[in-house]
Amino acid sequence: MTEVKPGGTRPASISSPEQLDQLLRVASPGGWIALAALGLILVSALVWGFLGRIPTKVDGSGMLIRQEGVMDVVALGQGQLLEVKVNSGDLVERGQVVAIVAQPELQSQIKSTSHQLDEILDQQKRLQDFFAQQDQVKSVLYAQQAQNIKAALKDLENRMTWLQEKLESQETLREKGLITTQTLMDTRDQLAGTREKERDNRSKLKDLEEKALQDRLQKEQQLFQVQLQVLQTQGKLALLKDQMEVRSQVVSDQTGRVLELKSRAGSDVNPGTALFSLELLDKELVVAAYVPASQGKRVIKGMRIEITPSTVKRDEYGYALGEVTSVSAFPATQQGMMSLLHNQELVTQFSRAGAPITVYASFVKSAGTVSGYQWSSEKGPPQQLFSGTVCTVQVVVEEEPPIQLVIPYFKKLLGL
């Protein structure tokens, strides 16, 4: 028997029965390695077929929003929009003037009321000057009249004192019979007449004081009426100016970021007309996605969702990880979609295949990425995410072993 040593050469052929017991080499070491590798692959495939998982996904489209965090800034008055002081993407502070709306009617009213106020103030000034001159004349006149009356009163008081003393003296003389009764009576009549004159002068002095007081009250009443007109007109003017400020200056009452301009300078607006949408930055960023109604019922709360914003390259940075937080029980209406998306084109695009099911999802947070969310890649994109960004989503509704997908094929092949 001829032995083939390792490294030797195989006989070219076996040409005789005597060579049947010759050692035959059937495979090289490289062949055994390839065979082993193939076997390993088959075993791995078999294991993966039973233990592996192939996800079934439902595709959809949506937008990143801040749920209950988007509001419209609206005009409060009717008029022409003169200026919008912000652009998409701008940050707006609470109390900031963001737009100017022309108010021609209010401007006309303000001009007319200002002219009316000027006339009333001029009337008040002329009336005050007239009363000031009148006061000078009347004060001198009243003072002179009062002085004359007081002088007459003093004379009458002196005469009454003299007549009283004379009457007392005559009474003594009358008791002694030195004068007649008629003389005594005449003195008494003189005293009574003097007293009457004294009372008349005191009444005149009182009337004079009352007349001066009445003149002063009448003057003050006229000045008060004019002052009241001044105050009323000033109040009306202030109210018109306040209305002008409120209606012409659109002020944001929230801090946020401008998403979309909805009105342009030069357009006519009415009270309640939306000028732009504002994103409130203190609200959580979520995903509002729309999936076909035929597939939407397969989506339930807690399922994993893969979110790919339109601003991120999926083949480079992968997708953001999220979790379904709620699913609408009924297909969405266009009105409901419009109130959420604030964009008619997106409403039309997302409902092209019919009324969709609305799916809300939250992001899985991560402190190790720029966006603050977890991605399928290690770091994710080097950018933040903002509301208003359109995205595509894939909801993992089921995961099953690969063997489950192959069995139906073999059943069909074998006719089972």
Distance between the termini: 56 Å
- Named CATH topology of the largest domain: Elongation Factor Tu (Ef-tu), domain 3
Mean pLDDT: 84
Question: What is the helix fraction of residues, given as a range?
Answer: 40-55%
Shape: rod-shaped
Overall CATH architecture of the largest domain: Beta Barrel
Radius of gyration: 55 Å
Q: Describe the main β-sheet briefly.
A: 6 strands, antiparallel, barrel
Which blocks of ≥5 consecutive residues have pLDDT under 50? Answer: 1-12
Q: What is the tally of beta strands?
A: 14
Summed up, the helix count is 8
Strand percentage lies at: 15-25%
Structural class per helix/strand content?
alpha+beta
Taken together, the total number of domains comes to 3
What order do the SSEs take from the amino end to the carboxyl end, as H and E?
A: HEEEEEHHEEEEEHEHEHHEEH
Overview of this structure, please?
The chain is an alpha+beta fold and 416 residues long. It folds into 3 domains: 1-52; 54-69 and 283-400, Elongation Factor Tu (Ef-tu), domain 3; 104-230, Helix Hairpins (Orthogonal Bundle). Helix content is 48%, strand content 21%. The protein is built from 8 helices and 14 strands. The longest helix is centred in the middle third of the chain and has 73 residues, at 104-176. The two termini are 56 Å apart.
